[in-house]
Design a protein that fits this description.
5 strands; 36% helix
Length: 125
């Protein structure tokens, strides 16, 4: 076993296989995942497993990275994800407040509402 993720999935690496008498050789490395808590006897479409695989483990499974991710790396990425989500929430609140003040001039009484006359003047119409 190469490792586990935070959801309990197990990841394995199968080395290249060489069989005797030259019958068959498999030169490719194979990596697989064993999902946590899956009932293999349940009816579902072939090849579809109801599990979530993180990007780090997906990269490892597809041979894009040589070393499996560590628990510390996974936890740091989750923490970074939560920080970004909080920043997005704050930005959305800020944009919403700006929209409300632009739509309702009563909320921001110091600014004059812009009309066509304020841009062109009454004599140009």
């Amino acid at each position: 076993m190469e490792g586990r993720d935070l959801d309990g999935n197990k990841y394995f690496e199968i080395p290249p296989q060489r069989y005797f008498l030259g019958m068959r050789e498999n030169h490719k490395l194979k990596r697989i995942v064993e999902p946590y808590g899956i009932d293999y006897n349940a009816k579902r479409e072939p090849g579809l497993l109801p599990t979530k695989i993180t990007n780090e483990w997906d990269s490892w499974l597809r041979l894009r990275r040589t070393d499996p991710p560590t628990i510390e790396e996974l936890e740091a990425n989750i923490e970074q994800y939560h920080i970004i989500q909080e920043r997005v929430k704050q930005l959305e609140e800020k944009v919403h407040k700006e929209k409300v003040t632009k739509v309702n001039p009563e909320i921001n009484p110091g600014k004059e509402e812009q009309t066509v006359d304020s841009w062109t003047g009454p004599e140009k119409r």
